């Protein structure tokens, strides 16, 4: 199993070249077709009302196309660049969702509040994850991404979203040198002798040629997501896999709160499915 069609979102943000380089590396590893989608809000109110690109957006799109074509040619990959016709906020989100539905994997960038103009809307990542029906890889806005998927951490709670993410991440898991499945338990569940949802999971992964280890830990407050991120970092993971809007540790929390927190703060590449 491999990703044969990879979509990478492009904008004018400071991390776009890092994101494109990572997508090219993934496409090479999977023998994939790479599609670049330029989509960002337009800062010109006049063009938004007229539903057309401003001169500023057209210039940004031209730079994006040149960057994509140069890197694609140098990589030897097959691919195609596409730019949206205008930058109205909802149009950017809606069209990115639609394009993602026709890809095996979509590569997006973590929102950076300090980046200013030229980046995608903050809610883009969550909306694509929830509405595309496809796995989404979100790359952190800070630092470089030298490897993705050599050491994988999987957040597991045996719910639908986690099972979906596990299946969608299988190309990464099968190529990884180390896979760690992490389960977060509440203090109440742990004291009650709750089984940390491990039945059959490692056997299932083994049938796919994935040798994994499993660990669980207990948290006593609502910091389950921070604890999960810390444990992933401690394992040296360069990819965290989790189901979006699933309950990890505390089912009484707002269902999407944990996912939004991880989207904002995850320091390593994050693969999400819903």
TrEMBL record:
CDD domains: USP-like. Signal peptide: none annotated. Residues 3-140, 150-272 form the UspA domain. Belongs to the universal stress protein A family. Gene3D superfamilies: 3.40.50.12370. This is Universal stress protein.
């Amino acid at each position: 199993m491999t990703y044969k069609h990879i979509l990478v979102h492009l904008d004018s943000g400071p991390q776009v070249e890092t994101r494109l380089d990572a997508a090219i590396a993934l496409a090479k590893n999977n023998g994939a077709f790479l599609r670049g989608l330029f989509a960002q809000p337009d800062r010109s109110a006049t063009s938004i009302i007229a539903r057309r690109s401003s001169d500023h957006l057209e210039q940004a799109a031209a730079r994006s196309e040149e960057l994509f074509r140069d890197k694609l040619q140098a990589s030897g990959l097959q691919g195609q660049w596409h730019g949206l016709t205008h930058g109205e906020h909802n149009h950017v989100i809606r069209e990115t969702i639609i394009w993602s539905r026709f890809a095996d994997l979509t590569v997006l960038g973590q929102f950076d509040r300090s980046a200013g103009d030229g980046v995608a809307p903050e809610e883009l990542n969550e909306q694509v994850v929830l509405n595309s029906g496809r796995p989404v890889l979100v790359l952190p806005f800070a630092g470089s991404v030298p490897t993705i998927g050599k050491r994988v951490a999987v957040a597991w709670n045996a719910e639908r979203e986690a099972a979906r993410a596990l299946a969608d991440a299988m190309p990464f898991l099968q190529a990884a040198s180390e896979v760690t499945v992490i389960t977060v338990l509440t203090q109440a569940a742990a004291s009650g002798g709750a089984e940390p949802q491990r039945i059959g999971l490692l056997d299932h992964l083994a049938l796919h040629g994935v040798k994994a280890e499993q660990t669980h830990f207990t948290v006593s407050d609502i910091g389950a997501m921070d604890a999960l991120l810390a444990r992933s970092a401690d394992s040296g993971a360069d990819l965290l896999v989790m189901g979006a809007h699933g309950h990890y540790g505390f089912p009484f929390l707002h269902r999407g709160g944990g996912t939004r927190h991880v989207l904002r703060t995850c320091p390593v590449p994050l693969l999400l499915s819903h």
